[in-house]
Amino acid sequence: MAQRHDLDPDESRRAALVESLPAVTDDTPLMAQLQQDARRRIELRGRRFPRPPQTRVITVANQKGGVGKTTTTVNLAAALAQAGLNVLVLDNDPQGNASTALGVEHRAGTPSIYEVLVDGAPLAEAVQQSPDVPNLWCLPATIDLSGAEIELVSMVARETRLRNALDTYLEWRVANGQERMDYVLVDCPPSLGLLTVNAFVVAREVLIPIQCEYYALEGLSQLLKTIQLIQAHLNPRLHVSTILLTMYDARTNLAQQVATEVRTHFPERTLRTTVPRSVRISEAPSYGQTVMTYDPGSSGALAYLEAAREVAERGAVEMRDDYTDGAPADGDARNATHENQAAAPVLQEEQW
């Protein structure tokens, strides 16, 4: 009890409410889920997440389809924005599903990431604000992006076009008196082509969503090899910072075995939070929303909110440690990356 008095009044109230929840056992899984949801509502509703000392650029990638990349991107982005942070989503997938979920216009002809990558258009001319969450912006994708891979092949500095556009946009925001972005989340297509390479070069961190099924583990080694190639030739500061287990069904032995396997191999990177299978998560995009606004009290929304808190708290600590240790600023790392441009053809020969 003495420790609770050391907390601020709001934290003390939350702690008291959590302690008042009934105890559950392993043989009452439904009650355990209800208690977990109640705890998350108490601990997370209205909470402000810590701001990182500089903009965090995170690419959400996994070349296997159907593991929850887009769902994770848009719901983490909405959760971070609802917690008071400024978030930009770059929809780098020709399917444009992230744009749909965030409720932004992405019909053919709409200024989009295609014009930014292929035509060199300013990113500021294409960014749209999400109608449902005030602090959330999106660079949409249109069907035109499906041909960008072919068009990018013959272009100079094809791997760095998205990074250069984002750097210019972030500087433009500050120069025009706007608040800096706290997070930039990049959604990727289910492949390892030039669109995904651009997404890896623009980012400093990679978040890998892993579906709790066996097939999801098979392609992980190839993804990690690709990330190592990017580190060696184009973006030395890129690293896998986060792994999120999605579509988790605690009732099945397989889901528990996959979760155990992932946590054994990546104990520091795997979030404690798992995202359950949820009808609400699947329904939300059909209404042009994320589950965070469609049904904020659902198990799926609460899971993504807790995952977002983990991402924010981990990142704030890690980036603060980088500054303490005298690590180079992000701009310095990007300048160092330019020195590796001459090695880019090596990457192309090895990977494509």
From TrEMBL:
CDD domains: ParAB_family
InterPro entries tied to this protein: AAA_dom (IPR025669), DNA_Partitioning_ATPase (IPR050678), P-loop_NTPase (IPR027417)
Domain of life: Bacteria
Gene3D superfamilies: P-loop containing nucleotide triphosphate hydrolases
Segments of this protein annotated with the region Disordered: 321-352
UniProt feature coiled coil, ranges: none
SUPFAM superfamilies assigned: P-loop containing nucleoside triphosphate hydrolases
Domain AAA: 56-239
Name of this protein: ParA family protein
